[in-house]
Amino acid sequence: MIKRSMTINGHRTSISLEQPFWQELQQMAKSRQMALSALVAEIDLNRSRRLAMGEKNGGLSSEIRLYVLNAALNKTQDHN
Question: Which of 42, 55, 69, 70 has its Cα between 20 and 30 A from that of 32?
Fold first, then answer.
């Protein structure tokens, strides 16, 4: 587990993820030509919108894992 601190939407936060998730998230940000913190902010904004609509979900670290997993699953489906 690797813990990193970053600023998203003007506030500092710490995120704990396993190394493979950090690596994939960094690759995703790079392929979109954006900073890692900007991608995390985008993921957090989507999570906040769903929370505001009453959807229950986990914390930001969990949300990031699901984001990476969904991207991997979509990539796999695109190749089939």
Answer: 55
Decide if 48 is inside a domain: yes
> Under a CB-based contact definition with an 8 Å cutoff, are residues 39 and 17 in contact?
no
- 6 DSSP β-pair partners: 13
Number of domains composing the chain:
1
The answer to the question of residue 37 being in a domain is: yes
- What 8-state DSSP symbol labels residue 32? T
pLDDT for residue 78 = 66
Q: Which two tokens stand for residue 56?
A: 């229950």
> pTM, whole model, 2 decimals?
0.84
Domain containing 34 equals 21-78
| CA neighbor of 29 nearest in space, from 21, 37, 17, 19 | 37
Cβ 47 vs Cβ 63: under 8 Å? yes
